[in-house]
Design brief:
This protein is mainly beta. It is built from no helices and eleven strands. Helices cover 0% and strands 51% of the residues. The chain is globular and about 40 Å long.
């Protein structure tokens, strides 16, 4: 079992920045691919950024150049640095851990990000 706890969401003006954190209950980087997803009201959950166990990073086209995913192995934490935020970035953001070999996937509880003036 893996527990994921997100933090760092909030209200920010357009053009502002936030950093989301996802703390895992144990070290999982070698056996899990990590991802940040978001879900806006009335929309499907979408992958925003991912980092594999082999440190391969990917981003959704809508956030390339503005968001950065990273992890700190010593703290069992994955981050999502979000810059130049736009109103369309408003959503609940979820951290996910998916087994590299296997079918298990874990989700955090989500953190609200609201971009508004």
């Amino acid at each position: 079992q893996v527990q994921l706890v997100e933090s760092g969401g909030g209200l920010v003006q357009p053009g502002g920045s936030l950093r989301l954190s996802c703390a895992a209950s144990r070290s999982i980087w070698s056996t899990y691919d990590m991802g940040w997803y978001r879900q806006a009201p009335g929309k499907q959950r979408e992958l925003v950024a991912g980092i594999t166990s082999g440190s391969v990073i990917s981003y959704a086209d809508s956030v390339k150049g503005r968001f950065t995913i990273s992890r700190d192995n010593t703290k069992n934490t994955v981050y999502l640095q979000m810059n130049n935020l736009k109103p369309e970035d408003t959503a609940v953001y979820y951290c996910s851990a998916a087994q590299v070999i296997g079918i298990r996937r874990y989700w955090g509880q989500g953190t609200q990000v609201t971009v508004s003036s």
